[in-house]
Amino acid sequence: MKSFEVNFDGLVGPTHNYGGLSFGNVASQSNSQQASNPREAALQGLEKMKALMDMGFVQGVLAPQERPDVAALRSLGFAGTDAQVIERAAKEAMPLLVASCSASSMWVANAATVSPSADTSDGRVHFTAANLNCKYHRSIEHPTTSRVLGAMFADQQHFAHHAALPAVAQFGDEGAANHTRFCRDYGEAGVEFFVFGRSAFDSRYPAPQKYPARQTLEASQAVARLHGLSEEGVVFAQQNPAVIDQGVFHNDVIAVGNGELLFHHQDAFLNTEQMLAELHGKLAARGGNFQSISVPRDQVAVEDAVRSYLFNSQLLSRTDGSMLLIVPEECRANPRVWQYLQGLLAAGGPIRVVKVFDLKQSMQNGGGPACLRLRVALNETELAAVNPGVIMTPALYDTLTAWVNKHYRDALRESDLADPQLLLECRTALDELTQILKLGAVYPFQIN
């Protein structure tokens, strides 16, 4: 039976803004308070989805969240009508209003961790929504994320959904941004690679000193247990605390993997040689031939990797067995990174093609091509069981493009978030979107 890796890209929401909410994310903080363009951001994302679809990849779309999150503001003591809640929050606690308007759910690499049926004990695809409890503006996402994923992957014969882990620091979980999977074929048993920044209970693991380590070892272990993964099919590795302190807030900012290949910076991990040997041995036991490409620090410094998002790229398998690397425009704009990529292509290794996409709106808020997609490996039967409304087609692309042009503003500043009309615009747009994507009632305003 044929199997696929399907990329479900996050659709940028109508309240896309630069709130500078993510401490440790250099791009997010450095562009704080600038005017954003939600319409352009959403269209840039849709163009990437269409391009991958046109290249022959199975492409899906994951809906954004309802913003502003009035229910979250009510839970913090703001009362009255929805308009009054927004008005009072803007007057008394503008940072909380900005957080409740965050469109960060577009980075669906943080939405959940996904294990394919070939790896799990019950032979189903498992999803665990990430609690994202390191940042308040992201910690409010997982209830809606769970409902949206449940509407997309509803067939319980094929799909299993787990609630987010306890929302405490010891189980900080950032989803697939710190998880990847290696395999000979997407339909065969593979090795799932969990990367953590710190341990909550074991002091032997060093922690960063400047920025928080968002993913804990304990969270990664809990997800592996929930998904029914075997010890032979899992590797846990620690991210280098020194690179976290340089702005590498998730592993997908310093490494990316696909198939049998890990593409990573020389300084990405602690105990790198031991980790690579474990990956090689466990994948070999499952019939695979693990390979790695380590980018030397003297060719690409960590700072260049963070600024260009070289590793926050999509590594995709082509029909001829080679790989395609999808990178943001910022990689071409960085001379050292671009020179390295040209040398990589000339070397004739597994990565044969590099394609550049303009994702400026997303990049300025701290997320690139890899952040925008959740990877789900599915066989033909499972793909047929996915809600067909969320699979990209030329007709859906045209419909979503028209939807964005109809509902999204072309400029948004912090002061605009206090406009109650923005909430009405968002709800109107999302109500129409759930009909387009055939999701049913997944948003609080549709349920309550």
UniProtKB/TrEMBL annotation:
Keywords: Arginine metabolism, Hydrolase. The active site is at E174, H250, C371. It catalyses: N(2)-succinyl-L-arginine + 2 H2O + 2 H(+) = N(2)-succinyl-L-ornithine + 2 NH4(+) + CO2. SUPFAM superfamilies: Pentein. Substrate binds at residues 19-28, 110, 137-138, 214, 252, 365. Pathway: Amino-acid degradation; L-arginine degradation via AST pathway; L-glutamate and succinate from L-arginine: step 2/5. Homodimer. This is N-succinylarginine dihydrolase. It comes from Pseudomonas fragi.
